[in-house]
Write a structure and sequence with these properties.
The protein has 449 residues and is of the alpha/beta class. 43% of the residues lie in helices and 16% in strands. The strands form 3 sheets. It has a 6-stranded parallel beta sheet, sandwiched between helices. It has a 4-stranded parallel beta sheet with strand order 3-2-4-5, sandwiched between helices. It has a 4-stranded parallel beta sheet with strand order 7-6-8-9, sandwiched between helices. The longest helix is centred in the last third of the chain and has 19 residues. InterPro entries: ChlB/BchB/BchZ (IPR050152), Nase/OxRdtase_comp1 (IPR000510), Nase_Mo-Fe_CF (IPR005975).
Length: 449
């Protein structure tokens, strides 16, 4: 059991976390023909959109209700109704994700009532689904905002059919924000190899993977899970849940569909990959394809080859709880010492980690712990570059945002193949960082004549 440390300082000096509205908007970016709408100030949404564009290097569909000082005091309901009507008329989306922010939450905005007012004033847009999500900046992090948006989509878009016919070859997948588009592509192929048809909610793997479309440009999301597929989730035989942050969303889906679920904390590592593969074999009633035996053998060989790089290495890990926990358990399993772990927000999973303590804090806290405990390698997003330089440690980039490397969002670290790639990436960083000791030369040595 890890001890949870909470710094007493009154402010965040070098922020680690991204806000809940960013996470909620990210979830809606994985839905086809969708427009996320943040109910807050114009500058906040512009900042979030910039984050997305730098991380994914793609055009991002994101709008704002543009609250100002007047509407903040007197009420911004009209802004919401006008924004919804404008988006419906100009962009013709199938889904609008209405995300609150710290500003609208502090103002006391009643978003469900405002959505009802929109329905009353604009019945011509009854076919457009509006999914309201409460996502204050003052609470949680990207991961919790993402999970809240998924739960809201389930409550709004999935029909309530707890009994009835189920498609035995169709499974639902709820994957946390810790999985990249590259991870989700790997996950889909993994499930399809067993003859199952997955419905991923959301599916940023098919919307933010970086691809060109025939029409050249769209004001809405490119790809993603469709509204029709979300409605068909009620007919799935089972649900696969990846990430403990998705527990509430999984509970909501189970209540609406009656389908059993299988939950996994992460899919990084040999043991986690074995468990997921066995679950797919049981759900499908099919034997494990031979290719997975080959991939497993490659992973175990990589673990043997790189064990000396990891053994005794001092590692620092930072990030949201699902990603942090997965990487802490990965490094621990490889024989490294995780000497510093800093999470962006509290989570029940943190106490279960196999290390002495986990701090809830920012990158300043992370840098302080890593320096005091002599970390050789630190794991952080791109905001950790300067900390790594000051520490003299090597940096493994993970999380959000990563804006100083091309294709980081396409990296896949899950499954047998993904874990193998992660082992090689971390081992190479440790090998390049290793400083060989200079040989001792006695002061009494005499040069040969």
């Amino acid at each position: 059991m890890a001890e949870i440390l909470t710094p007493a300082k009154p402010l965040s000096v070098n922020p680690l976390k991204a806000s809940q509205p960013i996470g909620a908007s990210l979830a809606f970016l994985g839905v086809a023909d969708c427009m996320p709408l943040e109910h807050g100030a114009r500058g906040c949404t512009s900042f979030n959109k910039l984050y997305f564009m730098r991380h994914f290097n793609e055009p991002i569909a994101l709008q704002t209700t543009a609250m100002d000082q007047t509407t903040t005091v007197l009420g911004a309901d009209d802004n919401v109704v006008e924004a919804l009507a404008t988006i419906c008329a100009k962009n013709a989306p199938k889904v609008i994700g209405l995300v609150t922010t710290g500003l609208s939450e502090m103002q006391g905005a009643d978003v469900p009532r405002t959505v009802k007012a929109f329905r009353t004033q604009h019945p011509e847009f009854a076919h457009v689904a509006v999914v309201p999500v409460s996502a204050s900046d003052t609470l949680g992090c990207l991961e919790t905002g993402f999970a809240a948006a998924v739960e809201a989509m389930i409550e709004t878009l999935v029909p309530r059919r707890p009994s009835g016919w189920k498609n035995r070859d169709q499974v639902n997948v709820l994957a946390s924000a810790s999985l990249t588009p590259g991870d989700l592509e790997e996950l889909r192929a993994w499930i399809e190899a067993f003859g199952l048809t997955p419905i991923l909610l959301p599916d940023v793997g098919s919307s933010l993977d970086g691809h060109l479309i025939d029409q050249g440009f769209s004001t809405l999301t490119y790809g993603g899970v469709t509204r029709e597929e979300i409605e068909r989730m009620a007919d799935s035989a089972a649900t696969l849940v990846i990430g403990r942050s998705m527990s509430r969303a999984a509970d909501a889906l189970q209540a609406r569909t009656g389908a059993p679920d299988v939950r996994f904390d992460q899919l990084i590592g040999l043991q986690a990959s074995d468990a997921f593969t066995e679950a797919l074999a049981e759900l499908s009633g099919r034997p494990v394809p031979a290719i997975f035996g080959r991939k497993r053998a490659q992973l175990t060989d990589a673990m043997v080859d790189c064990q000396f790089q990891f053994g005794g290495a001092k590692i620092g890990v930072s990030g949201d709880s699902d990603l942090l926990s997965a990487l802490v358990e990965f490094f621990h399993g490889m024989g490294a010492n995780v000497v510093a772990a800093v999470a962006s927000a509290r989570s029940p999973r943190l106490a279960d980690l196999p290390i002495e303590d986990v701090a809830i804090g920012d990158l300043e806290d992370f840098e302080t712990l890593a320096r005091a405990r002599g970390a050789d390698l630190i794991v952080a997003n791109s905001h950790g570059v300067e900390a790594a330089r000051r520490l003299g440690a090597t940096l493994l980039r993970a999380g959000f945002p990563i804006y100083d490397r091309h294709g980081a969002h396409a990296d896949a670290w899950i499954g047998y193949g993904g874990t193998r790639r992660l082992i090689f990436a971390a081992a190479n960083l440790l090998a390049a960082h290793y400083q060989e000791l200079r040989p001792y030369i006695s002061r009494y040595k005499q040069a040969a004549e």
